[in-house]
Amino acid sequence: MITYLLKSTACLALLLFFYHLVLEKEKMHSFNRFYLLVGVIASFLIPLATITTYEKIQVEPITNEVAQTFSNPIFTDNSVNIIQENPINYTQIAIYIYSFISLVLLFRFGFNLFKIIRKTRTYKTIGHQKAKLVLVDDKILPHTFWNYIFINKDDYENKKIEQELFTHELTHVTQKHTLDVLLIEFLQAIFWINPLFIFIKKAIQLNHEFLADDTVINQYKNTFQYQHLLLNKATWNNEYYLASNLNYSLTKKRLTMMTTQSSPTKILLKKLAVIPLLAGFIFLFAERVEAQEKQEIKEEPIEEIVEDVSFKKEDFYKSEIYKEYFYQNIFITSKDKNGKK
Question: What residue intervals traverse the membrane (predicted)?
């Protein structure tokens, strides 16, 4: 089990390293979303794969001649009084501690999910295209969970929310980004001991923002104005756990991505590079099993050897050599016409 966890962690670390080094810099955010999700699942499955190698071994035949030797048994009294102690099972204790922490994290995950659902039923909701606007009293920026967009009630009624912000949040709704967040949060609660899930979660959420930003820029064609809008909203508070928010990780990396121009050929080559990467990880982290193929050396009976030669057994029995051997100790008596022997 420990070997499996180490292989899974190493595989996830290399996948994440390849993402930050090669894929994240290009404008292929939909592919990167797929890569990150599949990479997490692949890190669990690749160590379970097996590569079987075959090795031929020669096995000597078992003869019917068995030499048996018997001797009178000798009985000795070696009885010793053994005092049994119950050692402490540290492995079982570690499993209990690990399971307890996982249950606590799962409870926190479920409680935060319950709080968001409760807000959708507590406050007024309004239909807006493919989403539902939840008008809350909190002074917040728009946040998205599933098909709900949480916005400040006063800002909505006074029409202080820019259309770019609505487009940004609608992208989270239509592309179902909440599914990715819920999946990674659940896995992080189970495999909390693996610190890489913190980084993979940040990479997934940042890629969601890349996707939403790209949609806004393509629709409104004003990158500078949108960047200025985000910078003005950067200091707003976010209290909605599990929800996608506008000012998540508003760093230089995110602002630079808005003006990045990517070559289609370069993007295609980087996508194709993922195939040998996954194949190499399978070869590196898969379990190797050596299967021995037995090659038995057979001893043919004498009768089979006789059948293999150029003549048959019947011809052998009729031969002069066999007759001389068969009749060598026989005496023949006969009588003449006069009755004499």
Answer: 6-22, 34-54, 93-114
